[in-house]
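User: I'm curious what two different proteins look like when written out as structure tokens. Can you demonstrate?

Assistant: Sure. I'll show them one after the other, since each token string lines up with its own sequence. Here's the first protein:
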Amino acid sequence: MMHGVAIKNPDGTARHCPFSLAPITLQRAAFDHLLAVTPLISQLISAVSEDAAFVQSALHDMAQADPFFGRLMTLHKQLHGTADAPLSPPRQPLLLMRTDYMDDRQQGAKVIEFNGIAAGMGPFGQRATQLHAYVQQQWPSLYQEWVENPAAVPAPNACLFHLAGAIAQAAEQIKASFDESGAPLFVMVVQPDEDNVYDQHLLEVALQDLGVRTVRRTFAQLATDLSTGDGQRLLLAGLGPVDVVYLRAGYQPEDYLVPETSVCQDKVDRDRVDEDSVDRDSSLDRDSESAMSMNALSQTRVFIEQHRVAVNATVSQQLATSKAMQMLLTRMPASDLTHWGLDLFQAEQVKSVLAAMHPISTDTVEWFMTQADPAAWVLKNQGEGGGHCVFGDDIAKTLAALQPDEYAAWALMQRLYPHERDRPALGVRNGQMTVVADLVSEIGLFTAHFNGQPMTAQSMTGQQGYVGYLVRSKPAKEHEGGIHSGKGILDSITLVD
């Protein structure tokens, strides 16, 4: 807790994040493969997200089936127009992405999901690596007892510093484009009652150390405090020009719900494309409650992107990192992926880490009910965070309850069964130690791209665009491995040849 690795409690107190006492071990060759392929995935997603016509065409059915993503698609059309009448929003896309993997026992490491919005906890990943180095130095015999492989070497992880460096570079580029001097301004968009404030604060302090001013605002606050300056400059009341907007909110309908009308809505209405004209068939028309949830503050995102400011995540990035897009890219042949700037070898590398996925259809439901092994699959909707996956016998029940017009919001994904740690692990949660015999790990690799270009020098991290990692481990029997909402604990990586 003294190092900022904490979670806020509802009463304003705090508790430490759960953690392992010693790290996991990976084969160096396997980790190096992930370091090589993850920046390629980010390069692909960056290019796909800026292909507005493809995003709208590819995700049309999903947007019709999922009210929340239907609203996001409406925002996308306000910003980018349609294939017949394209628009070019002035925002500059800053893709800070976390690609999550599990190391399957049979197939090796495979992607679980892409995270392009609220892809946080990079600072905690660096802190976990530092913690294990501290334990190794201070209590070497204890470390040797609990580390998975005593001969393994720690994998470097400066995720906090590299994320901050990438954001600072983008901020400075925006400021320089206006020929302005002084400290850049970074705005973090947060949820009103966020418990993950410590992870966010670590990033803010790192940015401040690089000369960047930082502020935290909710969508409701931004709705009344944003305005337009010369040259499509985004201005924040009392603070002036904004250089970077970083969304740690906006991935669920509740983030946009307020009791009063958004002032920013009126600002956008003066210049924006009429929503009814761009998406008259939106599924939101069939779900007034969801529409109300999104209407209040979603226009603030449109207003932000109608200015020359670095943004993570843009609406297009959020759509491009959806489960539906992951499924579409997974099912494409490698040759099709070369449309977005990869060569065939790079495309095949990307394909090597994508697990099998199937769209839901009448035929898929029939196949699953009659032939599939429920233990071999997981059913996913488009939700972010924990609680959006269905396992085992519950899959058939969920499929049977779905209506055909809901199918496109769901996908079947091959279930991954990662290696369990070779030795028992010691986990610490709420100050209590627990021996876990079957710990498995989820590895998230962070990358940073600005306007399609990697934001880190190869000499800094070994790979263009790679900035660091986060490891969350959990007992194999647990489905939810989140640090905040699941049974996950912070962990780090050691490597063995």
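Here's a second, unrelated protein for contrast:
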Amino acid sequence: MSNPDTHRKSPVPVDQCGAALALDVLPDRWTWLILRELFYGVSRFADIQADIAIPKSVLSGRLTRIVENGLAQKMPYRDGAARTRYDYRLTPKGAALIPVILALMQWGDAHLKGGKPALALSDVETGEHLSVALVPEGRGLPLRRVTYEPIWDRPENKV
């Protein structure tokens, strides 16, 4: 994309830019990693903490913000006689970030991992391999049709 003028100015003011506004809600690496965990179905506090090696206090704060921003909801559960705990599930608003997470993953695979993906995405109905791309409006694949298979441990995908 280019602007033919030699004097460049952003076409959208920062306070009107969806990307800039999103960064107020999704400000840091930890938030994105937590959302990634929720996308994978890792929903319990201790499991998220173990997977991404995040300090408990940081995880607690980020999960509070994620819930306050409507990206996930807390669901109570109890294991036996243990006290009530919560797991976290993506809301539709949070699930709408999955293509962004997959796009970041795809970019990282291509530019930071030498083209060696960690996941194979496919269409559950057709089996076709998927990648994130711009498509005409209304022609995107619904997320319910997307599945993934971890392939990071295959020898050809090691960095």
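A detail about the second structure: The chain has six helices and four strands.
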